[in-house]
Amino acid sequence: MTTTATTPAPATTAGTPAYGLTTTRILRSEWHKLWTVRSTWITVLTAVAFVLGVGILMGSTYTSDGGDSDVDTVVLTLYGSQLGGIALAVLGILVTAGEYATGLAHASFTAVPRRLPVLRAKATVYTSVVFTLSLLTALLTFLTAQFFLSGTDQAASLTDDGVLAAVAGNAAGVTLLGLIALGLGAALRSVPGAIGAFVGGVLIVPEILGMLPYEAMDTAIRYFPTQAAGALGSATPIPGAASPGTALLALLLWAAAALTVPALLLKRRDV
Question: Mind telling me which residue stretches traverse the membrane in this protein (predicted)?
Fold first, then answer.
């Protein structure tokens, strides 16, 4: 009599396969999706090049008698984060709206029918990657620029009062602005539309509103995303700007609102 060995089937619990969905697996999936597309590397390297390149340029061309002595040292060395932040905002839009353009969203939501875990995982992976990248780039840029600024009135170190907090605040501001862009991409499901909404609504509209001769408008604008991010990235208080703590809270609320809208829409829309 011949016996045939059989491989036991994966264990199940209450009819659920052992290889079911978990938060860790969804996060791992989003991590792989982020790093296996060319656009991620292009936008990340572009952002780093902008921040580091402009920082080196500002440091190497600065002179104490050039009229910029009143500019905050961290702001001076990290001017490039304004351009780098736009590149990372585009990355945030591609993380969400890009999947609708390629059709990958259908596969993602078929694999995770509840949908909201996908959005949470995208936001989590994006936030961790962009904050780490922005912080390391800001530190490298500041230290490199200070090599050129040694001996000038803009010479400073990370141990100076408020400098390290401002460098970290700069990274936090860039990350939260990108998270707003990610939310816009998820809500609009269109890469061009989300980029237009971010540039127009987040970058341009506050500048236009700031031209209006109303004191209440000036007060409100200081809590808009880009203005709040600017307050976070300065080692010295900016006249007329929100305090760093208030600016961080405002940015967190903007980012939460930008993610709440697509979260609600995911429950009502078809993919």
Answer: 41-62, 82-102, 123-143, 163-188, 195-214, 247-266
* The pLDDT of residue 118 is above 50: yes
From its phi and psi, is residue 129 left (phi > 0), alpha (psi between -120 and 50) or beta?
alpha
3-state DSSP assignment of residue 16? strand
CA distances (Å), origin 1, targets 4, 5, 60, 245: 10, 13, 86, 78
First to last CA, the chain: 56
- Stated pTM of the model: 0.89
Beta-bridged to residue 166, according to DSSP, are none
The closest of 170, 171, 164 to 131, measured between CA atoms, is 171
By the 8 A CB rule, do 139 and 167 touch? Answer: yes
Read off the amino acid at residue 230: G
Residue 271: predicted pLDDT: 59
